[in-house]
## 1
Amino acid sequence: MLYKVFCKNPDILDSPKAVPFENTLLHIAASSGSNERTDDSSCKRAEFAVEVAILKPSFARKLNPEGHTPMHLALLHREWKIVRALMRLDPELIRVKGKGGRTPLHVASEIGPPQLLAELLYVCPSSIEDVTAKWETAVHIAVGKKNSESFAVLIGWLLRVDRENILQWKDMDGNTVLHVATRTNQVEVVKRLLEYMIDDVENLKGETALAIHDKDEGPHRSEEIGRAIRAAHMKRERRICLPLSLLPPKVTPTRHIRLGKYLSGDISRLRRKERNIKHRFQRFGVGREKSREVFIVIAVLVATATYQGILSPPGGLWQEDSSSSNITTNITSNSNSHYAGQMVNGRKLPRYIKYNSLAFVVSVCLIIACMPTDILIGAYLAMTMILLLVTYGDALYSILPPHYSDVRATVTIEIVVAVVFAFAIAVVRYVMKVSSAFRLKLDTAKTGRCWELVRFDDVADGQSNVQHAGQKHTADTEGHPLQILANP
């Protein structure tokens, strides 16, 4: 049918070419199924829509006068087959923004069935990061419209792809999903969010979720929400495992902080020491990920070789006690007795043991220093390395001849120093990891969104404007006075 129309009017698809907003054939196909809703008609409309989208890919991204793409219209008119056909044709169509900056995923989170919403996320995982013109995420929209099914799908997706940090993203008013759920009195949603969110985040009005709940005096106010938020807050307070004196000041996007003021402030002493240590290591290539991997491989090989060098020393081990042996050699001339399982004495054995032990403890400390920064895994690995040092000493003492007391003392000192050093490294890395969680990062991939660093404060903006307006600039450039910045 479509190609028969082409025979009569070959330019039919080029008619809206010069018009920025127009209802194309693809828009009409996506929104023409309101009256008829049979499987056969839906399949035909889906085939027609795909055919037009293949011939004119630009139509699939074009907005009509209402600010909708064909996929937007298909969702609004519940043409699920057309939606599935278009998203399989081009998954990036899910990220095309229409009226109000809303993508098809935002529309689906409001009105779409859970299965279709899950398919959209699966086909285009990055679409979960898109926000509207009001900086609302798909979770904001689902919670705001009280669509519990869509909320369950969205939060399930975020947890499975380790992107629950998106729950902390804020809209233009500074409200997180928890603020919206509290304001709309959705008890179950609030309880679910409290498992993965911080409860004391403030919006631009300085209100936390608990403050919004306490301020609400409407008939639908639920006391269960207040109890849940208070219980979550108390539970989070009990999780603090470091003294507050060891932690840097809490500077996070949850506070009303202006980016200019933050950048103009002094760097904390802990942050300076951390930077100095990092720069010193980077001079030797330690700061690079590939370099750390190479160091770990080399350290593991050295630790394995030196540990094996104690279990199988160069001179071997005595096979029987000296009391039952009548063989005397030059090797044993300096010893009165020996026992089975002890090292065969040699002139260079003390030096060998000292250097071998030193190489072992240094390699173990290097392994600990190059461990991943994850607190839980790093602590377990550090503990296993410390236990390895202790077992090395036990293995050495069990086969070392008794008259080598000076060697035993030297190795003991090396192991004790290594254990203390390894424990210190683990503690320092723990403190640095915790401090990084309390530090404001300019990397949007870690903080969530760059606009979380921007705060709209009318009072501060007014003061800044007055301050700059009072400054008189008399410098001239080509005879024209410099313009005064009204809004820095």
## 2
Amino acid sequence: MGNSMGGFMGKGLPSTQMLSIVFKSLYEQFTDEEIKDFDDFHAAILDILTVINSALPGKHYDAPARSEVERCFQEWCNEEDPAKKKEVFVKFIKKIKLSKLDNTTMMTGIITPPAAMAAKKAGEFLPHLSMIKAIPDVIFVPSVTVAALVISKLSRRLHQRSVRSQPNRAEPSNVHEIQPVAEQSTPPCPPD
């Protein structure tokens, strides 16, 4: 069956040729925009990521960190030869990472719908939550699931941001400046 479909559909392009065509068209889109400073460069990179993410359903590429884009911009500006500039751009685009679901998001998406149904059934018997009966299940369960996923994602990002902003406590940054602290002993008790 696969061989017969190959005859109808054609052989297709090898992946390296396909990638070179894609990167060429992306670079042409990139160079069509006038880039004067870092903000223009960053906006052009984000536009390209938007194009990639909208063209590939099911796959989503994360935007690189600002520091990585700044490094690429410096390297791109330092190159005079257009071929070298294109090489810097292609190398940068190839390093962009595919977004992956983490376990927390996956577990939240799996556990929340049955938990929402159980919470709704339990809430129907409480006098203060009797209005919950008026909300149909097809509206209640997806809205609770989406809210739980949003909260999970936001808390994950806030946690990652706080971890990045705190210095590593295991290794102090000023190792050579640490002074030993003398032990303090308690004075003896006075005699009675």
## 3
Amino acid sequence: MALRPLHDRVIIKREAEETTSAGGIVLPGSATEKPSRGEVIAVGNGKLLDNGNTAPMAVKVGDTVLFGKYSGTEVTSGDDKLIVMREDEIMAIIEE
């Protein structure tokens, strides 16, 4: 199943969860915190403005972004767990 976001929505693949603590202890799945950063894998056309124009998206495919803990909606596509969210739920683009 292929997903194509509409308007100002983006699809993000969350980074892998840490399964080992800094001290080397293996953490069970219930104890790991989901990372709040990931890679943008698809973007919509942009936000539809009141005047009928479309505002361009600030993020692009391949960007690594930071988002809120409860942002977006989790969906499953094949074996991948993805997040669909509006662009304004993204807090920052991580530039490394």
